[in-house]
């Protein structure tokens, strides 16, 4: 899921924002579930950035109410009442949006009360499509904790971290100007 940066530039609740998200999704995916997953990720980040989410729980419920009726939404509703249980993922989390996006949002919201590394480790420990799930968890949890909340050891281990920091500042400047 590569939609996270767009969440700072488009309003996922607006008609135009949703059209922009659909346009971004259809580059690589042409189905409603992938769109719902991308919209859910953008909506989660938007809820965090706009402070519409009071934390530490309920992010799944807020996001589920904002996306179309799809398998992604159904799974979000189910997980919001049961939580993410390791036993439910004996073979790991599959890469489908209907499975991975709700799990990622559920785990990411834990960053309001748990260390970033612990939340990321929980995503990886589920197994399966760990790079996708951990990436989404990191994007959402990163939006929640901000740059200062990231573990210094992880940041220092990034190759070309000064280039990444420069690019992130550039994206932030664009987002400030573009966001309605």
User: How many strands, which pairing sense, and closed or not: the largest β-sheet?
Assistant: none
Radius of gyration: 15 Å
- What's the CATH H-level homologous superfamily? ADP-ribosylation/Crystallin J1
Uncertain runs with pLDDT below 50, 5 residues or more? none
Series of secondary-structure elements, N-terminal to C-terminal: HHHHHHHHH
Mean pLDDT: 89
Work out the helicity level: 55-70%
Principal-axes geometry comes out as globular
The total tally of domains equals: 1
CATH level-3 fold name? ADP-ribosylglycohydrolase fold
Strand content: under 5%
What's the total count of β strands?
A: 0
Q: Which architecture would the CATH scheme give at its second level?
A: Orthogonal Bundle
CATH class: Mainly Alpha
Tally of alpha and pi helices: 9
Terminus-to-terminus distance: 23 Å
Structural class: mainly alpha
Can you walk me through this structure?
The chain is mainly α and 180 residues long. It has a single domain, classed as ADP-ribosylglycohydrolase fold (Orthogonal Bundle), CATH 1.10.4080. It is 60% helix and 0% strand. The chain has 9 helices and no strands. The chain has helices at residues 15-25, 32-49, 59-64, 71-82, 97-108, 116-125, 130-145, 152-156, 161-178. α1 (15-25) crosses α2 (32-49), α2 (32-49) runs parallel beside α5 (97-108) and α4 packs parallel to α5.
Short description:
With about 180 residues, this protein is mainly alpha-helical. Helix content is about 60%, strand content about 0%.
